[in-house]
Structures are given as structure tokens and as C-alpha cells.
Specification:
By secondary structure, this protein is α/β, with parallel strands linked by helices. The protein is 39% helix and 24% strand. The protein binds adenosine-5'-diphosphate (ADP) and magnesium ion (MG).
Length: 251
């Protein structure tokens, strides 16, 4: 089976500093891949490189077998790679519905999308997305009135509205309550029924909830890869990453 996304021997260099060295990653249809690793491991940089937010020094990125390395961020998004960044980037003064409307594929700027005709197809699409992300009852609430967790779901909804086939999420549960974190896991599992999902995450409870395959990054390279059990029992992973968590938890 051909991978939806394939990263081959990827190197990203920031003024002499190797943020990623020889990273390989394949993501298949409908799969959830979770990326873990210490701060500074290169997790966000990997997603940045995939969506051309950071320049690739060498290596290749393929989407459905077609090379997309260093294509423009706009082109990468247009092809079907949706990316949610670490901080929510939503319009607080607009309703949830209007935020999603703005994000719909083909929307060009606030004015154009708000004043363009709201067709039944667009409306249906927005409701479908909000149903999935659990925000249907908040559709006409102003985003500023939502909880931090709900704002994150608005942004996930905005990514889904762009009809990606693969969704990249950078620490989607950051700052969430335990309940919101659990709900986010449910949302991601629902998204994975029709999309491939790559999630960067710190919270190991959450990782266990959603993870099918885990990739551990460390100092810009893949340190280990496998199931939750495989990764948790890997001595190298315990040493550089999970051990610290155990120490933190005990402190
Ligand atoms: P993670 O998401 O795993 O915490 P990052 O991918 O954000 O790590 O960062 C990996 C390393 O690359 C860090 O040392 C970080 O300081 C560096 N880095 C990330 N982005 C840039 C940039 N735009 N310019 C210079 N250095 C960067
Ligand atoms: Mg990061």
C-alpha cells in the first residue's frame, strides 16, 4: 500500500544547527501516528517541514507518491495536508460558524467569505464538521465566549473544513482540562475514520488513548517506533524521555 505521506531522509538545518537529521516517516490511510519526544527534539520542525513552513535542506517529502518538498505552504494545503499549529489561531469576535465558513476551501479573505453566498452545501459541510468536533450546540456562540479547549476544537474544525486527507496536529491538548483532553482523543479517533492523522503529544495518558503507532523523536532523529507497549519498554526511550516523566510524576 502506498503511503499517504512519506518523508525520506529529511534534514532541516537552521543556521548550522541540525534540527532534523535523516528522518524517515510513512503515514498510511486512516492511521493515527503519534509523535513524542523531549522539548527541542524537532517535532514541530518536522510538521513545519512537511507544510513548507521550514525549508528542507535535503531529503524528500511525498504526498500520495508525488513529491511536495519545498512547495509553497499554500500549495501543500491545497493538495490536502491540513496543519493545526500549537496556539489557536481563531477569530474571537466571530461565531464558531463564521470561523469555519472562513476556513472553507476556496474562501479568500474575510469579506469575500462572509459576503459570498452561503449555499446549502457550504452550510451542510460546516454542520458536518461541527458535529464531528462536538461544537454543534456552540455554532452561533462567539468564539471569545468558549473555553480554551473549545477554541482548540474550533481550530481543528477549521482544518477539517479545508478537506484535507491528512491532518497534522501540534500538541492539540495543550492547556486543556482532563475532560477536554479525553474529548479531544475521541475527536481525533473520529477524524481518523476518514483521514490520516499525525499528532504531536506530551500527555502519555492521552497518547495511550489514541495511539496506534508511536514515533519517538530525539535530537532531530527517530529514536524508536512502535506500539505504546513497545515504545514504553524501550530502554533508549525510557532514558531520554519517559524516565523523566516518571521522575516528574514522583516529584
Ligand atoms: P519540539 O517541537 O520537539 O519541541 P522544535 O521542532 O520546535 O522542537 O525545535 C527543534 C530545535 O530546532 C530546537 O532546538 C529549536 O530551538 C530549533 N528551531 C526550531 N525552529 C527554529 C527556527 N525557525 N530557527 C532556528 N531554530 C529553530
Ligand atoms: Mg513543538
Amino acid at each position: 500500500m502506498e503511503a499517504v505521506l512519506s518523508v525520506k531522509d529529511l534534514n532541516v538545518v537552521f543556521s548550522g544547527f541540525k534540527a532534523l537529521s535523516g528522518v524517515n516517516l510513512d503515514v498510511y490511510d486512516g492511521e493515527i501516528v503519534t509523535i513524542i519526544g523531549p522539548n527541542g527534539a524537532g517535532k514541530s520542525t518536522l510538521l513545519d517541514a512537511i507544510v513548507s513552513k521550514s525549508p528542507v535542506f535535503s531529503g524528500h517529502i511525498y504526498y500520495h507518491g508525488k513529491e511536495i518538498t519545498n512547495k509553497s505552504p499554500h500549495e501543500v494545503a491545497r493538495l490536502g495536508i491540513g496543519r493545526k499549529f500549537q496556539n489557536p489561531n481563531v477569530y474571537n469576535e466571530l461565531t464558531v460558524f463564521d470561523n469555519i465558513l472562513l476556513a472553507l476551501k476556496g474562501a479568500h479573505g474575510i469579506l469575500a467569505s462572509i459576503t459570498s453566498k452561503l449555499t446549502p452545501a457550504k452550510k451542510g459541510k460546516i454542520y458536518d464538521v461541527l458535529e464531528r468536533t462536538g461544537l454543534i450546540d456552540q455554532a452561533f456562540d462567539q468564539v471569545s465566549s468558549l473555553s480554551h479547549g473549545q477554541k482548540q476544537w474550533v481550530e481543528i474544525s477549521m482544518v477539517l473544513a479545508q478537506d484535507p486527507s491528512i491532518v497534522l496536529l501540534d500538541e492539540p491538548t495543550a492547556g486543556m482540562t482532563t475532560d477536554e483532553t479525553y474529548m479531544t482523543g475521541e475527536i481525533i479517533q473520529s477524524i481518523a475514520k476518514t483521514h490520516s492523522v499525525v499528532v504531536i503529544e506530551h500527555d502519555m495518558e492521552f497518547v495511550k488513548q489514541i495511539a496506534e503507532r508511536i514515533v519517538v523523536l530525539h535530537q532531530g532523529s527517530v529514536l524508536a517506533e512502535g506500539s505504546v507497549q513497545e515504545v514504553q519498554s524501550n530502554p533508549k526511550v525510557i532514558e531520554v524521555y519517559l524516565g523523566r516523566e516518571t521522575i516528574n510524576a514522583a516529584a
